[in-house]
Specification:
Blueprint (H helix, E strand, L loop, with lengths): L3 E12 L2 E12 L3 E5 L6 H9 L6 E6 L2 E2 L9 E4 L11 H11 L4 H10 L15 H13 L5 E4 L8 H16 L3 E6 L10 E6 L2 E6 L1 H8 L4 H19 L1
Helix pairs in contact: 2-3, 2-4, 3-4, 6-7
Length: 244
């Protein structure tokens, strides 16, 4: 649909002889923050790599902003933040962001704006190796933002951060969505669910639920995302047992 920034249809990915995504389908509407939640090993990173176009797939299609995932036309329109910081430790924040700006055909002013947008202007000249965990996450985000992407794919951006730093990052994410950008954010921390417009709960490469949090809680009769996810896992397991 025209209102969907990301459309995944019957996506199949096999790794090491094991089917990681056995025919997954989902959509991400434009201008929303969609949380991709679930336990480690459930297929979140594989799905995100597929959306960015760096994952070899066995079948199905992934369309981003009307183009096949990984298309050259999407180079500056999609920003990808990996779990491991993709910045150079021996360079300053400014030098890192300006390097990525040049790769994407942007100028130094764009780099400065990206640094300002993540509130790192006061640390622009600091070497990355001397940053705190939260500052390192924001430096990586600045490198992702420098191309002014319409879609942001953020793989566990708050992992290992304390609650205050996680809150600060989520305030940045919400601000980006308010500008009209689309964010697909993965996490295994269920309390981050309240910060998302919609939640996709993933387990064993399958979508257990795709809905706003209030709808999910109503469906499961639970009071929080963690309890809702456990209820869906139990329901899913019972269905698997019945099928057997």
């Amino acid at each position: 649909m025209a209102d969907d920034a990301i459309v995944v249809e019957d996506l199949r990915v096999t790794r090491g002889g094991r089917e990681v995504l056995p025919g997954l389908s989902m959509t991400v509407p434009r201008g929303q923050v969609v949380g991709l939640l679930g336990p480690s090993g459930g297929g979140k990173s594989t799905l995100m790599r597929s959306v960015v176009g760096v994952q070899v797939v066995a079948g199905g299609t992934v369309t981003v902003l009307g183009e096949p995932a990984g298309s050259p036309a999407l180079r500056s329109r999609v920003g990808y933040l990996t779990q491991a910081a993709s910045v150079y430790a021996d360079l300053s924040v400014k030098d890192n962001v300006r390097y990525f700006a040049r790769v994407l055909g942007r100028d130094d002013a764009a780099a400065d704006r990206a640094i300002e947008s993540v509130d790192l202007t006061d640390h622009a000249d600091a070497r990355v190796e001397n940053l705190s965990g939260g500052q390192l996450s924001r430096a990586g985000l600045a490198c992702t933002l420098v191309g002014d992407p319409e879609v942001l794919v953020l793989d566990e951006p708050t992992v290992g951060l304390d609650p205050v730093l996680r809150r600060d990052l989520w305030e940045i994410f919400r601000g980006l969505a308010a500008e009209g950008r689309t964010l697909l954010v993965s996490s295994h921390v269920m309390d981050e669910a309240v910060r998302c417009d919609r939640l996709v709960l993933l387990r064993a490469g399958r979508v257990l639920s795709d809905s706003p949090l209030p709808e999910l809680l109503s469906r499961t009769g639970t009071e929080d995302a963690d309890s809702a996810f456990l209820a869906l896992v139990d329901e899913d397991a019972s269905h698997d047992g019945g099928a057997a």
